[in-house]
Amino acid sequence: MLKEKGGHAGNVTLQRDLGWELETYWPIRDRLVDSGLLELGRGRGGSVSLVTPAAVSQPDTTESSSAPSPITSAQRLAEDKLYEPVAEVLRKQWARDLRFRSLVVEVTARQGRRDTGGTWTRPDIVAAALRVFPHVPGKFFDLITFELKPFDGTDVTAVFEALSHRRAATQAYVWLHVPACEASNVDLIALLKRIEDEASRHGVGMIVGADPLDYSSWDLRLRATRFEPDPESLNEFIAQQLSGLARDELAQWFR
Length: 255
What we know:
With 255 residues, the protein is of the alpha+beta class.
């Protein structure tokens, strides 16, 4: 079926067109990736491309056939209304797409007056993840931060907030809410391009989402560059940002 689609398709579209349940689609997709027959790509909800015999990957395209229903301006969400929906999608579809073995996601924006290290040191969401690869020995730990911005708060400073988190995180992302009805706004398009350019310079990831609860509307503009922070800073960050329950679960991963 991928050949009929030009060798590239979004996960949502491909799973729907195949008529497979999620429990069938994801394991088969992952086995094909491990076998070197498919490679992961960008796009809303993630995508896959056929790997040609010459190992030349197909160009990334953004999935368009599964575009969400337009959201009216009245549906613009306040920042605190984004936290739980985005966290829920991170725990489910996003985690599955990125093939995490174990994952803990916590909303860290709501910590009151708790000391978390100063200005711009408290991410909105933190994801701690464990990955294993079939052809590489060992376990790989990631601490990934997310800085969320509502439509009315979209600004280049989001990149620098995300960048400040990376002193103790392996990856940092900005997640920007752009309702579908605003997607053709010329000024917005220019602003998003400036944000993307700045994020690219600093290795910060960028996701633009029309609906925080619909992974198929999440457009991965940039994948975050992975860094190895100082272990002491990483340990301090976990102690300051994550709950006791989350820290206990992380400890279980390495026992």
